[in-house]
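task queued by scheduler; priority normal; single chain, no ligands, no partner chains; default sampling; output format set to structure tokens
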Amino acid sequence: ERTATAARVHPAPETVTNHWLSLDLHGRERGRRSRARRTAMAGVYAGPAEGLEWLAEPMLNRKTRMACMMNAATGALVAQGFEAGAAATETLRLGG
């Protein structure tokens, strides 16, 4: 997390949604159900995810523009673009 004057690093594995994880950083949540999305994303760690098969409501919604799964240890990346809650691009798979 980064502001103009501060940064916080969180231990891996971690997920990214639209709210601050650090209580000492001031800001506001963007969008609806940001914390529910983060909780759902954290559940992805419970099993071996190779792609975007886990992507569902509340993570996938009409405002979703991109979903990706990245693994720095293996160099794997899976990404897909969305518009209005539906796939707008093919799934891109690199490395791994």
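post-processing summary
- The chain has a mean pLDDT of 81.
- The helical segments are 34-42.
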